[in-house]
Amino acid sequence: MTERVAPSLDDPVLTALSEGIGGPVGSHARPARWWTPVRVVLALATLAFALGMLQKQPCWSEDWGDGHDRYVKMCYSDVPYLYTGRGFAELLWPYDDDTEVRAKYEVMEYPVGIAYAAWAAAHVSHWLVGGGSVEARADVGQGDLLRQPGVLNEQRGFIVATTFGLALATLAAAAALARVHRRRPYDAALFAASPVLIANALVNWDLLAVALVAGALLAWARRRPVLTGVLIGLGCATKLYPLFLLGGIAVICFRWRAWGTFAKVLAATAVAWLVTNLPAMLTGWDEWMHFWRFNNDRGADLGSLWLVLSQAGVPVGTKLVNDVSLLGFAVWCVVVLVIGLRAPSTPRLAQLGFLIVAGFLILNKVYSPQYVLWLLPLAVMARPRWRDQLIWQAGELLYFAGVWWYLDGQFDSGAGAQPVFYWLIIVIRVLAEVYLVAIVLRDIRQPAYDVVRERDPEPALS
Q: Domain range for residue 60?
């Protein structure tokens, strides 16, 4: 069996850091029996997630009720507000089409996977906390729900149940990534010990989709196209972006003339997505359509270059943003296709997936801080180098701080003044992402720079 790559010998940053603890691993070093690479990665992921929970502690202690602290202390999360804001305090099905329910509560603006997870967490919370009957809450206004007996404790239970689910998703993603490259399990430590994972893990439910994407990368590396498609389909039902992995798979299958493999992935994706969406579609079609309408109707929003243009006075209406961003993304995909087909060697799925998702985020009309998690598993598998990852993530961490300061009004310098500093932070974030895009493009065009391909005899699938 081929020996595993030792991180302290493979990565210049880790080689330098290892000097403080005795230097890189030696030729006579014995591997630990219990601390296998996967267990080390899982331990790092557990520590990172725990630090992410600690980072949210100031808001937890205030029950997320202090509108100033949640931004200044950068502990904001979408999770607690949806318990009373989307009907979960009444244990309502997210796609209930009852007119009175819809008059009282907004429909979930997320895909069904997240809606199902939140609904399940509400039931777990109600069971754990021992809340009373929810029927009496039907006559209570949404704004008054938190003052009802037991609701605040249920909300806390809802947060705990959601956090537990996201922790499991994080560990699943880390374990899957550690197995993608048989000789390079420690590449997954770039995910598990990621600063952006600590900062963004609990902002929303994105880690559910991240785990499915990591699983799809592993299934593809193990040459299991049906399972790959199922995981992509489930991912699409949770967040739309896993769909873009199909573009990378199409490039690989085109180069290999593996049309049957691509057909299996495509069919499995479609079936998994449809089966997952059917309960919502059948019980509340209009409510299920809300996600699509919401994203189509929203204008330039937080984090996007479109917001910079809009606030700077450029007339960018919603239709123009939709049309131009869609056209720009289509052009971006064509460019990735051409690069992938003309590359000297077949690019890896993580490389192609990273390029496509990065293009979508750069051109999209909203770029929320937690969207960095979409890129994270793809980025660390595409370019497993600490230097490049830290350069990219430095831009993301700057934006993570900047967006909360912006929402708290910290960048307001007077009446009518524009948040120029926030614009600068958005641009820096995009430039940091473009840097990593350029590195991955170089690795594809010049495979000798690809550290995975250089050291692994069978990297093409992953």
A: 7-13+34-407+416-455
pLDDT tens digit sequence for 9-32? 566 776 676 566 555 555 555 666
- Closest by Cα among 142, 136, 46 to 85: 142
In a domain, 312, yes or no: yes
pLDDT at position 17:
65
Return all residues near 312 (Cβ < 8 A) that are at least 6 apart. 418, 423
Q: Which amino acid is at 170?
A: T
Report the C-alpha gap between 232 and 211 in whole angstroms.
10
Q: Give whole-number Cα distances, 276 to 87, 113, 116, 242, 280, in Å.
A: 21, 8, 10, 15, 8
User: Is-contact 85 195, C-beta < 8 A?
Assistant: no
For the chain, what is the domain count?
1
Give the angle 280-282-287 at the CA atoms, nearest 5°. Answer: 50
Q: Is residue 432 part of a domain?
A: yes
389: in domain: yes
pLDDT by residue (tens digit) across 295-305?
Answer: 999 999 999 99
Contact 357, 378 (CB under 8 A): yes
Dihedral (C-alpha) 180, 184, 189, 191: value to the nearest 10 degrees?
-40
Query: Which pLDDT belongs to residue 13?
Result: 72
Q: What are phi and psi of 449, to 5 degrees?
A: -80, -15
Phi and psi at residue 59, to the nearest 5°? -75, -35
Q: What is the pLDDT of residue 181?
A: 93
What is the CA angle 2-191-53, rounded to 5?
Answer: 140
User: Is 147 within the bounds of a domain?
Assistant: yes
| Rounded CA separation 86/112 (Å) | 14
User: Which alpha helices (DSSP H) does 91-205 contain, by range?
Assistant: 99-104, 112-129, 151-180, 189-192, 195-200
* Rounded-to-integer distance, Cα 429 and Cα 310, Å: 18
Q: Give the helix/strand (H/E) hosting 307.
A: helix 305-311
Q: What is the pTM of this model?
A: 0.94
Angle, CA of 27, 459 and 234, to the nearest 5°: 120
Residue 89 CA neighbour count, 13 Å, CB half: 32
Q: How far apart are CA 66 and CA 74, in angstroms?
A: 12
**Alpha carbon distance 425, 395 (integer Å):** 8
Residues lower than pLDDT 70 in the chain = 1-2, 6, 8-11, 14-15, 17-32, 34, 131, 413-416, 454-462
For residues 220 and 298, give the distance between their C-alpha atoms in angstroms, rounded to a whole number: 35
Torsion of CA 253, 255, 257, 261, to 10 degrees: -10
